[in-house]
Amino acid sequence: xxxxNLRSFLEVAEHGSFTVAANRLNLAQSTxxxxxxxxxxxxxxxxxxxxxxxxxxxxxxxxxxxxxxxITRTWEQSRQDIAVPDGYETLxxxxxxxxxxxxxxxxxxGWMRARRPNVALRLEGSYPDQAIDQLAEGLLDICxxxxxxxxxxxxxxxxxxxxxxxxxHAAQTGSWTDNYILMDWGLEFRIEHDRAFAGxxxxxxxxxxxFIGLQHVLSQQAAAYLPLSAVSGHIERxxxxxxxxxxxxxxxxxxxxxTNPVSSDVLDVALTGLRKxxxxxxxxxxxxxxxxxxxxxxxx
Length: 300
Hints:
alpha/beta
């Protein structure tokens, strides 16, 4: 199936007009019409119907729309991911939570540049489920994430154990519960949180990304449970403070990579650098090697 036909289909579906789609694609309208006819012949179904209001999708067209979008995204991503820049031997693709840039990603990039200068690096940003699927599909090489999902062909190991602490904006007055965003760190955290604050009403606002919680606390003078590694700088600068006597939760951070990588030598070097950073992290926070091995059973 020609991806250019899919691109024409998506433009017509979005704008409800062959003319607008042709202008956006810098093509003749007859070319767009021919592409849609070819697509309809391949599928054996009509995708559009013309009426007084323009062009609308048929039921078959509506069913095909998410598939066309998915195929096009995958194709474009694949083209980018396999493109090794000139002058480099291979490409290594890595993703990690954005707030770990200073502590993990940036020093790891330095490690790789010093030891494998012939390897190009692609730094991605994605949600955990998407990252796991991308690892399985060969679109990522290494991922750092919080919520592992068992998947054939993917190895998980505990990278570090982060402390999740209750913080509030330095200017927040009154009780921290008056303006609190509940961070969803998974089922185990929710159970422990509910046990620790049994009498607390469920907050009206919740989020699952560190960046969202961090920005909300800073911009709205609020409170939240956030990883210590994400808020330590804000605490040192006096922008936030820890809530006295609040329980501290432990949150494992996982390293994920494929069982059979395309370039095992490059992956070994990359993992060595990340494991060294993990040991430094463990030493800083005082966790034992036993702490770091928690949660690994059944995830390979």
